[in-house]
Amino acid sequence: MSRKEFRDLSTPAEAREAVESLDLTPDPETVPLAEARGRVLAERVDADLDVPGFDRASMDGYAVRARDTFGHDETDPATLDRVGAVHAGEEPSVTVEPGTCAEISTGAVLPDGADAVVIVERTTETADGDRIEVRTSVAPGDSVMFAGADIAAGARALGPGTELTPREIGLLSALGRDAVEVRGTPVVGIVSTGDELVRPGEELHGERGQIYDVNSYTVAAGVEEAGGDPRLYPHAGDDYEAMGDLLVEASEECDLVLSSGSTSASAVDVVYRVIEERGELLLHGVSIKPGKPMLVGRVAESAYVGLPGYPVSALTIFRTFVAPAIRRAAGRPEPRTATVEGRMAVRERSDEGRTRLVPVGLVEGGPSEAVGDDDGATGGADADGAAGNTLVYPVDKGSGATTSLVEADGVVTVDADTEYLAAGERVAVDLFSPDVRPPTLFGVGEDDPAFSRLLDGLDRPRYLAVGSREGLRRLREGVPDVAVTAGPDERESSARSGDGTAARVDAVDLGGWTREWGLVVPAGNPREVTGLADLIDRDLRFVNRDANSGLRASLGEAVATLADERGVDRREVVGAMDGFDRSVRAHESPARRVLAGDADAGLGLRVTAERLGAGFVPLGEEAVRVRANPDRTEKAGVAALRRAVEGADGVLDGLAGYEPLE
Amino acid sequence: MSRKEFRDLSTPAEAREAVESLDLTPDPETVPLAEARGRVLAERVDADLDVPGFDRASMDGYAVRARDTFGHDETDPATLDRVGAVHAGEEPSVTVEPGTCAEISTGAVLPDGADAVVIVERTTETADGDRIEVRTSVAPGDSVMFAGADIAAGARALGPGTELTPREIGLLSALGRDAVEVRGTPVVGIVSTGDELVRPGEELHGERGQIYDVNSYTVAAGVEEAGGDPRLYPHAGDDYEAMGDLLVEASEECDLVLSSGSTSASAVDVVYRVIEERGELLLHGVSIKPGKPMLVGRVAESAYVGLPGYPVSALTIFRTFVAPAIRRAAGRPEPRTATVEGRMAVRERSDEGRTRLVPVGLVEGGPSEAVGDDDGATGGADADGAAGNTLVYPVDKGSGATTSLVEADGVVTVDADTEYLAAGERVAVDLFSPDVRPPTLFGVGEDDPAFSRLLDGLDRPRYLAVGSREGLRRLREGVPDVAVTAGPDERESSARSGDGTAARVDAVDLGGWTREWGLVVPAGNPREVTGLADLIDRDLRFVNRDANSGLRASLGEAVATLADERGVDRREVVGAMDGFDRSVRAHESPARRVLAGDADAGLGLRVTAERLGAGFVPLGEEAVRVRANPDRTEKAGVAALRRAVEGADGVLDGLAGYEPLE
């Protein structure tokens, strides 16, 4: 096997330098004002006209010669002849001679002779309407904006490098600019590698090991966010010639080419060889986790960065090294880094010998969890002002998992020489963006269809369907706000099996419901399965759920009862079931295996069977309970969940086999 | 005069409620994944396939039956027959029987029979290549990602209301989704009112009181920023029928119609009548400054908000009341409010009786300005961690000025019953966006073409060309970092005129240059002006600069010298000059008046005359000096400016009449 080894890894600093040495900066371009928002000015803009372009009334009233009002007031008004009127958008047809005035509206041209405006509230029309009493004294310039007072011709209005927000658009409008020269948008080509990748929307053949191409769209979205213009190139296959031609083609059309997609060694090898032979390789391999197999170089006419294949690695390398270069090329300022301080909720080992960027989730603890050492709290990026209560937990499902992207809020950087982060240790979390806020509710536990619907009505909840057993374990560790558990009645269960963990957790019960569970079978139940005994006595293939699920606990209870009835050992019953150990992860997975023809019966819920159009053999009911961390019952998200659980009847009505708890 | 009076003003809270009562929410829409970034999910997305869709090797190595490796290690390797290979994207053609293994690459399908992968680094090929020595023991599942382990079919992937960042795009890609249902983008029509308004890019007739339409593009950019889709409607004129038809047409095409543009009473009256008669008026007039004349209602089929005419007022009302409604309709979360604490640099009166939103600028003070009371510092939104040093100064050039938009960083809200903000008082500034950072350098003073070019090379400077005298005044107040002054040699000047303020300021001199000043005359000098005496002795019309400018000080010096020579009083000389009191604001303004035929000579610089193709009569040289606040010399922006001034020779070389200071 010939595989590229990355023995001489570069440091993160060297990788940064290598990327900085590439030139991605495109030429400036001229855009219409209506499309200029968010762009960065490439030119310096001087005013080439006065704004306003004339002496302008800034109030409704009468244009006067200020001198005519001197010394007058409420008790001794000046009386002036009205000689006409000037409205906004008109050329004045009158001249204000001594002793006269002209009606004027806001925005109108101050007529010749006048040097001030008296506001209408300080005037009175005489009965005949020909004369105006002015009940105040004004100074020259009062209620007048002189020509050029906003900005005068020749003055510097905006400098190069200015980001154009609505405010700058306003000034450019005032100057009459309908187009501006802005920094060009770096064009970033994304070349997808790996014969196993299929574009989303196309048909996937899992049996051939195909997977959807995650990195292309993810990185494209990242390019857009950084101010670049992403171009997806069609996949060319992993042979050397085709890949080489594609990379060279992309380099001619783009300022930067990224290759991304595959974790397969052959695809990586091909790209590596193309860059070495048809470009220039500046760096391969960086001492960072995730992201080690990063390439930096040039190919034909553009800069090149090879991203690792795993989505988490690819996005991490992109965010850490590539996005800053795209922003720089686009002239965009570095975004204000949003950092939140928190405490590690659990110990995290890190004996890697390279810098680790650990994706982490955040959860706001309750008030009683507050601890003394609050001096370092940054507070600003923390909406609730409770940085001292922020718990930080690692989200590490492996670089291959895309879900860990959405289950994390940011990244903790762990130095190469740090062996571990202790539970309770203060850490700084770089949020994925300054807008990231910790979820209002962090729940873990059973994947229950009714609970899942309740989540739809909550604001920014996070829920990890890790199963009832694992959910309770985490609740005991104190990290999540709530755990959802399902399973047989606890008192009975713990009395029988001794596994009464649920009952012993010091949690606050927020309520729940029951759900009907049993065996999901093909539609029409062709093998005429009647109950659990058939799985033992007949030649039926079964698919189980994993040991964390409440369904599995209920099944275990039913197996124990059956063993008691038969007077045999529980293990004997289990051993007779073909598939008791064939456990799958999600609540619909056994049913889907059955429908795919891989099994005759699967552990599942009536609601799942109905949803998927399968048959169902009921075995019992189990309780689903929502349990809260006792320190968090006052937290807004937990309170909102409690209300949702209390009002869950509408949701339960729509789900087969669900009943409110008595 | 019939004008709408806003006597019964609503409170800001009532205005907010009125806007909230409008329904702007558009229908959800389906967008391709490539265009989904930044949108908000309208559907709940459940996985409808397992990810990965098969048991997947997560490392390069050999697929084995774990049991075959049990008990083996470096000293006692297991030897397995190699029966084939599986690459990513291939359907396995082998089965791993006991005692065998298959080469496997990362991402490939685990072949039947195998339940683990041994990483290649722990294996050795035998000499003949047919067998593999496995130097470790692995457990079932090692280096394998099981089908559905990332996310399983039927599991909840993303909830409605989720904002789609690159991370969520990644998960949607993994699920094979190439389109998603997202919250619709509210369409916001912008109807421009006021006969005096001209679209940017079109020809402007200032003599008729025309001005460029600032609000349309500014508000459109604000709509876009808030997540709406702005539509500019062509201006229809201010007559009732045309305006009514236009508003009704816009209402049929938009979720919200904004009218915006004119300050003229007639235009405002027309819109007011249209809404009253062809729609429903919910609110007119709100007790807030700026922004009082706000309208809220419905017109035909859509929601309606009438924005005030002045740009600052329009954008303030838009940001305060309308943008939140657009964000809500688009399903966007409220942006994290960025607030910075600072101290008022000067006293600000506010006896208005209504809530005031004061646009303010920020400047970071120097370390020696730090003051004791730092406990309330929020810090987070303050890049330098120096909130206690942030000085806040009001930017109030009147609502009619567009430049005050770009000279401010945010807004301080002053309650209706607050009479004033004291200098030194702590205030909270709501930044215009969380990305706003105080300028790196805040300068004030003379509008000098050379200095203006130096600014182009600095990162985010702010410079207000208020003139030398006003610049020095502000430097003495301690607000800006630097002041740029121009004028006659100070020692002479102060000795002669007693006006030696510049010399007496305790400022640090960062260097400077000299510039040639004199009279700008039409090209070819048709009136054969030879010097200052001609302006006194002949019938020539002159245009002066304002009293704050250094040029005016140099002229004053020259006038004094001439008066001395003639043995007359200075006032006599000035009185004989037609136009000594005709002063204009910006450094090019007198020259432009001359070129427009309004005058025979104007005070100005040689560089200006050359730039505008005018003639020039030199009268002398004056020094331009850059002076720093002594507390701020260590500030990075000031240090960068000092370097720029020291290296200014290249800039000076390109400017006529400029010389380095000796």
UniProtKB/TrEMBL annotation, chains A, B:
Residues 1-19 have a biased composition (Basic and acidic residues). GO terms for biological process: Mo-molybdopterin cofactor biosynthetic process. InterPro entries: MoaB/Mog-like_dom_sf, MoaB/Mog_dom, MoCF_biosynth_CS, MoeA-like, MoeA_C_domain_IV, MoeA_C_domain_IV_sf, MoeA_linker/N, MoeA_linker/N_sf. One of its GO terms (molecular function) is molybdopterin molybdotransferase activity. Pathway: Cofactor biosynthesis; molybdopterin biosynthesis. Pfam families: MoCF_biosynth (PF00994), MoeA_C (PF03454), MoeA_N (PF03453), PBP_like (PF12727). GO terms for cellular component: cytoplasm. Residues 189-328 form the MoaB/Mog domain. SMART domains: MoCF_biosynth (SM00852). Keywords: Molybdenum cofactor biosynthesis. This is Molybdopterin biosynthesis protein MoeA/LysR substrate binding-domain-containing protein. It comes from Candidatus Halobonum tyrrellensis G22.
